[in-house]
Amino acid sequence: MSALMIRDLHKSYGGLEILAGINLEARTGEFIALVGPSGCGKSTLLAMIAGLETVTSGEIWIGDRLVNSVQPKDRDIAMVFQSYALYPTMTVRQNITFGMESRGVPKAEQAEAVKRVAALLQIEQLLKRKPGQLSGGQRQRVAMGRALVRDPKLFLFDEPLSNLDAKLRVDMRTEIKKLHHRVGKTTVYVTHDQVEAMTLASRIAVMNQGSVQQFDTPKRIYDRPTNMFVAGFMGSPAMNFIPARLTGSTSIAVRAADGSDATLALAAPLPASAPKDVVLGVRPEHIYRFTTDLKSRKPAVESMQAPVELVEPTGAETLAVLRLGDLEITGRFEPDDAPVMGETITLGIDMSRACLFDPTTRALL
Amino acid sequence: MADIALNARHDPEAAAATRRYFWNRFFVYAVLTLFAVIYLAPLLVVVFNSLREQSEIARNGLISLPRSFRLDAWAQAWGTYCVSGTCEGMKRNFFNSLWMTIPATVISTLLGAMNGYVLSKWRFKGSETLFNLMLLGVFMPGQISLMPWAFLLGKLGLTNSTYGLVLIHVVQGISFTTLFCRNFYVSIPDDLIKAARIDGAGFWRIFRKIILPLSPPILIVTVIWQFTGIWNEYLFGVVFTSGQQQPITAALVALTAGGTTARAYDVMSAAVLIGALPPLLIYLFGGKYFVRGLTQGAIK
Ligand SMILES: Nc1ncnc2c1ncn2[C@@H]1O[C@H](COP(=O)(O)OP(=O)(O)O)[C@@H](O)[C@H]1O
Ligand SMILES: [Mg+2]
User: Fold this and answer.
1) Is residue B30 part of a domain?
2) Ligand 1: residues whose CB is within 6 Å?
3) Where are the domains of chain A?
4) Where is the signal peptide (chain B) (predicted)?
5) Do B8 and B141 have their domain in common?
């Protein structure tokens, strides 16, 4: 059974359409990430699930209940806000019990619940403090505690980690993942950080301009993005988009640095309906230094020449900016095997991992 | 260490800067002192006169250092001085003012807090327009509403009563209290309200448990503003009450206008001071919170 079902959901402010027909579904216990650039409507969608924003049209189902006009408190949800939204005049304990107080949960039961959640999040020693006396990471924990104590059907997170510094963000990400494994609650997690989405979610909805571009597993989203927006948004450094021309049903030509055409064989034939001009999408990690050994291991690798314009070692890997026609593309290399600046390298492009897009519709071919 | 050694050596430029700084300061303080004297002199004269004997005032003039010291004038002004036939001093009027000012302050502040809460956190269609209309009240001089109030108090049977004045001051004050509170509450993050709604709190519970506990800075501001404003207000008091019902500001007019006897400057001075005391005390004890509350937001 699905814990959350969204059907053709629309939202307009005045005449302005913010959400344009969203369809989503989360199975019980699933971790769904909503990812997309700032302003694409993620928070609005989450607020509508929570009941904090009205529905313009469409349906929201939580469990087997249509909740379009149900009050937030009666939707059996809990939410963690980007700003944490801790009540500043209350102690951590009061913050956590506020919801139970509102619902008239007996005191003994409240104390029990606080104990359980505080232990789970390791915030026992913070219970008497006020939010103003907590660090960012501690506030984040308390905000999670306030949500966890409810034992709701559905967890909603709105960019819960984006106010933390980089290191803490990675730590908390791991903890959220562990927590989800332990608690097993259906979760909808909004983020603009594609790495967070990839690492946490069982399925990702990539949004842009008020509509879901693709809703699938992280692997499918990464390997087979349905369009150039998804392909460009997910992955860092971003996928390279190289204009190419079909030269047969199984080969394409791309412009090399010296102006000549390099012909690359496709791993699979294109449908007959494919346009003559296409865009070749190659992720940086699918670009190698070409060797015969590589070709024997990965038969789909195709080779071409490219001058190296710039090299950026990051330690774990080395990024190289390569020239292709009047285009710059990025390749990701092993530091030991990395090209050097000024060198002209023979590239191996793994065509079995490459994607082809229609440049006019921007859709995957 | 090197820096200190350098500074210790004589540096004519630094010395000139120091001198310039000194004269600048001197000038600033001189001007400030002058104006402080100009502002404080009348107060000083009144304080002196309230302590001088009437005969001495008559002899040495109104502006002069005291050569006698008595508290009689204060006692008279408070309890026994006769104004238009009744010899009860200002006592009754003082309490009239208190019973008018305290409820009017409390009620208008609470209403302002609630209005501010609604207009900032529970916006509805037209709420901005409503707020702008209420703002109009801030700029409306009191005399414009004299006639309507006369009509209304007459209908309600509240002429010549403290209740009538309380009603007037509550209504007249709502614009200001709403403005203060609304602007303060706007700085409270909306996420707090959303979180509380998910936590199952409704309109009132959010107000009591989240908004009010954050409000002391702005409530102090509105209370001080309303208290001093209502206490010092005089137009409505004069127009709508008379004799024993008058607040002290209105009664002071009657006192100084009473032309039957020779003017008792000592008693008048004491009476004026009695009338000015509550706002002065508020200023002395609450002034710093007033500034703080106006300048700080809801969440530090
Ligand atoms: N109350 C509102 N009135 C008008 N426009 C709004 C309102 N709330 C959000 N928007 C607009 O809706 C769009 C989506 O906002 P939001 O859901 O917050 O985006 P995201 O969370 O993806 O960054 C933005 O363009 C924003 O300006
Ligand atoms: Mg957002």
Assistant:
1) yes
2) A 13, 18, 36, 38-44
3) 2-233, 240-357
4) none
5) no
Phi-psi region of A250 (alpha: psi -120 to 50; beta: other; left: phi over 0): alpha
State the smallest CA–CA distance between residue B218 and chain A in angstroms.
15
The residue behind tokens 């003082």 is: B94
Decide if the complex's ipTM is over 0.90.
Answer: no
Q: Which of residues 155-214 of B touch A (CB under 8 A)?
A: 189, 191-192, 194-201, 205, 209-210, 213-214
CB-defined contacts A:B, below 8 A: 59
CATH number of A240-357: 2.40.50.140
**CA distances from residue B125 to A180, A195, B202 in whole angstroms, order as listed:** 41, 41, 20
A23 Cα to chain B: minimum distance (Å): 24
How many A from CA of A263 to the centre of ligand 1? 46
Print pLDDT tens along chain A (365 aa): 789 999 999 999 988 999 999 999 999 999 999 999 999 999 999 999 999 999 999 999 999 999 999 999 999 999 999 999 999 999 999 999 999 999 999 999 999 999 999 998 889 999 999 999 999 999 999 999 999 898 899 999 999 998 888 888 898 899 899 989 988 999 999 999 999 999 999 999 999 999 999 999 999 999 999 999 999 999 989 999 999 999 888 899 998 888 888 889 998 888 888 899 999 999 999 999 999 888 899 888 898 999 999 999 998 999 999 998 889 999 999 998 889 998 999 999 999 999 999 999 999 98
Name the superfamily (CATH) of residues A2-233. Answer: P-loop containing nucleotide triphosphate hydrolases (3.40.50.300)
Q: Is B123 on the interface with A (CB under 8 A)?
A: no
Helical packing angle, B248-257 and B91-121, nearest 10° = 140
Can you give the pTM of this predicted structure?
Answer: 0.85
Kindly determine whether residue A132 and residue B300, on different chains, have CB atoms separated by under 8 Å.
yes
- In chain B, residues with a C-beta closer than 8 Å to the C-beta of A72 are 194, 197-198
The reply to whether domains A2-233 and A240-357 share a CATH topology is no
Q: Are residues B97 and B16 in the same domain?
A: no
Per the structure, the complete domain to which residue B218 belongs is given by: 91-295
CA of A45 relative to ligand 1 center, distance in Å: 10
Coil, strand or helix: which one is B218? Answer: helix
Question: Among A48, A25, A60, A23, which residue's Cα sits nearest to residue A203?
Answer: A25
In a 3-state reduction of DSSP, which class is residue A226? coil
